[in-house]
């Protein structure tokens, strides 16, 4: 009988084991990953988007990428992007300082859509016919 060895343990140093496999490091750490709920917020700037298609497609349970942005109007700006990397809005400027500090220190944050409300005719851009109120939960991804 031939058994293929899928994983092997290799001693790295005293007491430390390394799992060796053709797997990216992130996948190896995934079982150790913990998502810590920090807070919930409504997305800002949805009425200013030139293209609201990303907002139309968002639904509760969707994850958004949180990304620091060099922004002349907000030194702590945090941009929210969908899985296709389309701009969905921002963490509000008056609520983003702590999140920005965490991200600047190398921490990974992400947001999960928990609620979406659409209203007709409330957008500031004539092209946009809707106003989107989208509430997200902000999580710290800890390893």
From TrEMBL:
Q: Which domain of life is it from?
A: Bacteria
Q: Which Gene3D superfamilies match?
A: 3.30.70.2330
Q: Name one GO molecular function term.
A: nucleic acid binding
Keywords in alphabetical order, please.
Hydrolase, Metal-binding
Is the keyword Isomerase assigned to this protein?
no
Q: Does the keyword Plastid apply?
A: no
Matches recorded under Pfam families: HIRAN
Q: The HIRAN domain covers which part of the protein?
A: 36-140
Tell me the InterPro entries matching this sequence.
HIRAN
Name by which UniProt lists this protein: HIRAN domain-containing protein
């Amino acid at each position: 009988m031939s058994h293929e060895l899928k994983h092997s343990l290799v001693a790295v140093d005293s007491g430390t084991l390394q799992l060796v496999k053709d797997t990216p490091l992130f996948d190896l750490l995934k079982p150790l990953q913990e998502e810590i709920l920090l807070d919930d917020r409504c997305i800002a700037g949805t009425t200013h988007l030139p293209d609201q298609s990303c907002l139309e497609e968002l639904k509760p349970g969707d994850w958004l990428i949180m990304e620091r942005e060099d922004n002349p109007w907000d030194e702590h700006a945090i941009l929210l992007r969908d899985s296709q990397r389309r701009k969905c809005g921002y963490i509000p400027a008056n609520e983003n300082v702590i999140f920005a500090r965490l991200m600047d220190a190398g921490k990974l944050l992400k947001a999960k859509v928990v609620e979406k409300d659409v209203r007709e005719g409330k957008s500031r851009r004539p092209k946009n016919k809707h106003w989107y109120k989208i509430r997200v939960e902000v999580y710290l991804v800890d390893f």
